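lol so apparently i was supposed to do this last week
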Amino acid sequence: MSDRRDFLMRLGIGAGVAGLATQGAASLRSLVPNVSYDAPTTVKLGLPAEFPDGLKFLPDQRLFVFRQGNVFHAISAVCTHLGCTVRAEALSQPEEQSVGGLALRLTHRFLCPCHGSRYSGDGGNVSGPAPRPLSWFHLDVAPDDGQLVVDLAREVGRDFRLTVA
Ligand code: FES
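anyway here it is w/ FE2/S2 (inorganic) cluster bound
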């Protein structure tokens, strides 16, 4: 009888230790952030020749890619107020302006359908609740197949231009 009690007690202690070990491992794991550091932020967008002169909207990336000859830049379509997707409105007359110290032909402006924020063609917030300009993102040409590549984690200044050879 006492052997049985002994056995049951040991079993109980064993289960308790195992439970504590599991709990300890779980709480240690909770200290490690659940982040994947190699999540891709670069996206191939297609060959430069597939982009029309002017603007192309890419809904999957919520991005506007602008082309003027062989010069490209990309502006986010994510409203800086609460993140709705802004719409592009074509200007009746394209405007030549200095943007970031470099000449740029502006063909559109942007309007947010959610709360009416307006942005100029270079992404500057003009009116409404938007607190900041639309982001510009880094563009490059993929060395393997020549496609345009955007890096959605890399904001750039308004002087950014990618010239494709
Ligand atoms: S989300 Fe664009 S104005 Fe509010």
